[in-house]
Design a protein that fits this description.
Helix content is 37%, strand content 25%. The protein is built from seven helices and nine strands. The strands form two sheets. A seven-stranded mixed beta sheet has the order 3-2-4-1-5-8-9, sandwiched between helices. Strands 6-7 form a two-stranded antiparallel ribbon. The termini are far apart.
C-alpha cells in the first residue's frame, strides 16, 4: 500500500481532486474516510458515480478505512489518495494506525467558530489543536490547494497564534 496523498478537504471528492491531484499523484484509488458520508447510501452512491471507472473509490467510516489501511492487504496494490473532511477525522485515523507522514490541507471552509488563515483554510481552536497533535505525532502538515501551488507549512498560517 502506498498513500500518495492524505488530504483534508471539506468537499471530499470534487473536480480539483479528480482533475489535479489524481493525475499529479498517479493515484489509482480514492479512499474517503467520513462517517457522515458513509452513513448516507444516496450520497455515497453519488460520490462513487462521480469518479471515473479507471479509479477505485471506497467510502467508509473513519474506523472502517483505518482498519482496512492499518491491518489488511486489501489496498496493497493501489496508490491511495486518502480524503478526510476534517482535522478530527485525520487525527482519529492516524491514531488508529493509518500510516501517513504528511497531511495536505486543501479546503477547510468557513464555519461558526473558524478564523480565515488563507482563502481556503479556515480553522477553529479544535482544528488547531488537532493539527498540533498530528504534528507532535510526526506528521508534516502542509497547505496546498492544487499541485501547482507552492506548499506552505501550516505553521506559517498560524504564526500569530501562541502555542
Amino acid at each position: 500500500m502506498s498513500i500518495v496523498l492524505a488530504r483534508v478537504d471539506n468537499r471530499l471528492v470534487h473536480g480539483q481532486v479528480l482533475e489535479a491531484w489524481v493525475p499529479h499523484t498517479h493515484a489509482t484509488c480514492i479512499l474517503v474516510a467520513n462517517d457522515e458520508l458513509a452513513s448516507s447510501a444516496i450520497r455515497r452512491m453519488m460520490v462513487e458515480a462521480s469518479v471515473p471507472r479507471s479509479l477505485k473509490v471506497v467510502v467508509g467510516t473513519v474506523d472502517e478505512i483505518s482498519r482496512d489501511l492499518s491491518s489488511s492487504t486489501r489496498f496493497s496494490s493501489y496508490r491511495i489518495l486518502l480524503l478526510f473532511a476534517s482535522s478530527s477525522d485525520a487525527l482519529r485515523a492516524h491514531r488508529q494506525g493509518v500510516p501517513f507522514t504528511q497531511l495536505n490541507l486543501g479546503n477547510m471552509h468557513k464555519g461558526k467558530e473558524t478564523v480565515a488563515f488563507s482563502c481556503t483554510i479556515h480553522l477553529d481552536r479544535e482544528d488547531i489543536e488537532n493539527l498540533r497533535q498530528l504534528e507532535r505525532e510526526g506528521v508534516e502538515i502542509v497547505s496546498r490547494c492544487v499541485p501547482a501551488d507552492r506548499g506552505q507549512n501550516w505553521r506559517k498560517l498560524i504564526r500569530n497564534i501562541p502555542d
